[in-house]
Amino acid sequence: MTPSVSAVIVTHRSAAEAADCVASLRADFEKTGLAGEVVLVDCGSGEEEAQRLRRIPADALVLLPDNRGYSGGVNAGLERARGGTLLVCNADVAFQPGAVRELAGAAAQRSVGAAAPLCLWDAAGRLRLPADPPSGLAAELGLTRFAPFARRALELWERGGEARRLVGAVLAVRREVFDRVGGFDERYPFEYEETDWEIRVRRAGLSLRFHPAARVRHLYARSAARNPETEARRSASRRVFRARHYGVIGRALIEAAERRPPRVPEARPISEPVIEARPGAWVAVSTNPTLLPFAGAPLDAHFRLPDDVLASLRPGPVWLRPFRASDGAPLETLVWERA
Fold first, then answer.
1. Rounded-to-integer distance, Cα 256 and Cα 317, Å
2. In angstroms, rounded to a whole number, what is the distance separating the alpha carbons of residues 270 and 266?
3. Region 141-167: what's the mean pLDDT?
4. Can you give the residue ranges of every domain in the chain?
5. pLDDT value at position 223?
6. Is the pLDDT of residue 328 over 80?
7. Average pLDDT value for residue range 2-17
8. Are 171 and 194 in contact (CB under 8 A)?
């Protein structure tokens, strides 16, 4: 039987996370009665990792001899996938019940080029990862303002809607969209590939849909942190993206901005990453002093940065900013040092 949904999971040295991802998909397929298949693609992790992956109950296992990056992994998986709706995703995500059906429904709308779920960072599901990260030349130049961004983040987290950019941890796409705009560009070895692809989708007259009724847990930065080549590959992708989309003048402006000392906000040091409850407020959490983008949680109750999130963070400052839900206005800025 031809599946209606094909999930393409791309992994690199992440067999344990991939096993959990596949299990969550299988459970969701069974619970909702969807005819789904799983295509698992490994990007050159070696034979020891391949042995672990062979024990995972995928419908197809593609073992690439080299690390072609997320782009190459997705493209290789799409060649094996048979479904009309395609889920492309990182290995470090776990689907909550009903997420696949919700995403497939959102992606089925003819005006939609891709749909993304609400990504939760912690096991308790309180801390929400960015929905529509700052993008474009103005964002690269640091011109995004916190309050408007915070208002927009809350709107998308709570109600969903059209976004300028979707995070590529999970994307639901009709096959015909890939046929129309092409696959991911393999000149991007790590990151920026989905941003480049989404620009092509929008130029084709299709929208990007953030759909919070679909929820996944994303172990953000967990697998990337264990790979020593991550930063070099990210820098290479950044150079390709800027050359392609900003031109000589745009790149020169960005490079000049990057040479300036980073702006560090006035912040009150705290000994523990804890925020007291504040009715009508949320907290933004980021390792970037601009707090853009940020993960966010409501302050309807006492907040403490969860231990499972701390496991993903490198040593260094973590910035926390309570803000009003009504208008995104910051209430104060705090900084905690992760040892």
1. 25
2. 13
3. 97
4. 5-131+166-225, 268-338
5. 67
6. yes
7. 97
8. yes
Residue 136 backbone zone (phi > 0: left; psi -120 to 50: alpha; other: beta): left
Annotate 34-47 with DSSP letters as a single string: --EEEEEEEES--H
C-alpha torsion sign, points 311, 314, 318, 323: negative
Higher-confidence residue of 222 and 6: namely 6
Q: Is the pLDDT of residue 262 over 90?
A: no
Cα–Cα distances (Å) from 254 to 127, 141, 243, in that order, read 31, 6, 11
Q: What sign results for the dihedral spanned by CA atoms 94, 96, 102, 106?
A: negative
Alpha-carbon torsion (174, 176, 182, 186), positive or negative:
positive
* Domain 5-131+166-225 CATH superfamily: Spore Coat Polysaccharide Biosynthesis Protein SpsA; Chain A (3.90.550.10)
Statement: residue 282 has pLDDT above 80: yes
Q: Give a three-class secondary structure readout of 141-203.
A: CCCCCHHHHHHHHHHHHHHCEEECCCCCCEEEEEHHHHHHHCCCCCCCCCCCHHHHHHHHHHH
Cα–Cα distance measured from residue 291 to residue 288, given in angstroms and rounded to the nearest whole number: 5
Place of tokens 């499972």: 308
Write the pLDDT tens digit of every residue in 222-260: 766 677 789 999 999 999 999 999 999 999 999 999 999
Whether the pLDDT of residue 108 is over 90: the answer is: yes
- The predicted model scores a pTM of 0.95
C-alpha dihedral sign at 247, 250, 253, 256: negative
Residues 258 and 250 sit within 8 Å (Cβ to Cβ): no
